[in-house]
Amino acid sequence: MTSTSQPTALITGAGRGLGLALARSLLSSGWRVVVDARRTAHLAAALPGAVVVPGDVTEPAHREALAAAAGGLGRLDLLVNNASDLGPSPLPRLADVPLAAVRRVYETNVLAPLALAQALLPLLRDSRGTVLNISSDAAVEAYEGWGAYGSSKAALDQLTAVLAAEEPGLAVYAVDPGDMRTEMHQAAFPGEDISDRPEPEAVVPALLRLIATRPPAGRVRAADLAGASS
Fold this sequence. Notes:
With 230 residues, the chain is of the alpha/beta class. The protein has helices spanning 17-28, 43-46, 60-73, 99-127, 147-166, 183-188, 204-213, 222-228, and strands at residues 8-11, 32-37, 51-54, 78-81, 130-134, 171-176, 218-221. The protein has one domain: NAD(P)-binding Rossmann-like Domain (Rossmann fold), CATH 3.40.50. Helix content is 44%, strand content 14%. A 7-stranded parallel sheet has the order 3-2-1-4-5-6-7, with helices on both faces. α4 links the parallel β4 and β5. α3 runs parallel beside α4 (99-127), α4 (99-127) packs parallel to α5 and α7 crosses α8 (222-228). The relative contact order is 0.13. The mean pLDDT is 91.
């Protein structure tokens, strides 16, 4: 297998949680993987063989570096916009949430995925690739305290739907992974025991099934994909 024939993925927010688990699984399956994270010191050991680009997806120069890394590999089959910003913890009500924090949430959860998609569309079109935008049930349910994060994910869902309509050659999905035992989920529930939530690794098989089967584009729940594979 030549390097250019290997499927290639770019996964943001791969320093921990779902991004790290998915990157590890793809690498073990023979994919080439470009990852980014704000904390990357551990990734050389955690993801041997991955191309690690340290940085923050809200920064244009960092997004350019990610696009250059993918371009340097010659192809891109999968873009996973996984990096997310929860906002302040504990989660404030809309009456009290600082607007600066809301802007940061939208920069990370909406504008950065759009900017990366714009930069990477030529590569994705060439491979008839897949885009996974990691969403949340907070995009469609009204939970107190989740106004900034939930509305950003609702906006991401709409961007995903429009991108799917405009790019019919691609497989484009907004994916709700469900609750997971992650650092961000713990921040949403400070002081609470979240050990009953599944580890991110439990969600990966559903994402792999989605990538492999390419059902009609749209919003999907990992729990439904898992049920379909049983």
